[in-house]
Design a protein that fits this description.
Elements: H1 3-16, E1 21-30, E2 35-40, E3 47-51, E4 62-67, E5 72-77, E6 85-90, E7 93-100, E8 103-108, E9 111-114, H2 125-147, H3 161-170
Antiparallel strand pairs: 1-2, 1-5, 2-3, 4-7, 5-6, 7-8, 8-9
């Protein structure tokens, strides 16, 4: 083969080979299988089941970015396959899910959910402290009445048995200290 023929053969191989990395439009998103169907911008044939993570293994630690339907993603072909591909870049994320061991974090337009949200929302610490302070003021006033001047029973002038009993019982308790209820490593 001549030098010119070698160049022509190499050029034909380059031209005939599909692009390894290309932009595509998201047609559908399947969160359960962590895949999407896409339509490459340079073609008219959809590619189904494009992976949202490069690995097929069921590893317990991963991060997946789920793209919005109709958005543009970058897709890479795996090996010489025409249809086996994975997403390398997402332009418009709809949801991000990270799993590390027993911890799951999901972020979407509704907010951040830790471990499926079974424990409810994070506390708003300033509001919690404000409401607890109201309870402390009420208890403090109650304790002042009980520990203050004796209250006499009407009619016989004896000290109130209820006051004496409550006063004796409540002396063993302290008001709660809520100054350390905030976890400063998680802020919102």
């Amino acid at each position: 083969m001549s030098y010119e023929e070698d160049i022509q053969t190499l050029l034909r191989r380059i031209v005939d080979r599909p692009p390894v990395l290309f932009p595509a439009k998201v047609i559908s998103v399947n969160e359960e299988s962590a895949s999407i169907d896409v339509l490459p911008l340079h073609e008219e044939v959809q590619i189904p089941d494009v992976r949202l993570k490069a690995s097929l293994d069921q590893a317990s630690n991963y991060t997946i970015v789920f793209p919005k339907k109709e958005s543009i993603v970058m897709v890479a072909l795996i090996g010489n396959s025409q249809i086996d591909a994975f997403v390398t870049m997402v332009n418009e994320p709809e949801k991000v899910k990270t799993v590390i061991g027993e911890t799951t974090i999901e972020v979407d337009q509704n907010g951040i959910t830790f471990n499926e949200g079974n424990n409810g929302g994070l506390l708003i610490t300033p509001t919690l402290v404000q409401e607890l302070e109201k309870n402390n003021q009420l208890l403090d006033a109650f304790l002042k009445v009980l520990g203050g001047a004796p209250i006499f029973e009407p009619g016989n002038g004896a000290k109130s048995a209820l006051q004496e009993t409550l006063n004796g019982t409540l002396k063993t308790f302290e008001l709660g200290d809520f100054s350390k209820v905030e976890n400063t490593k998680i802020k919102h």
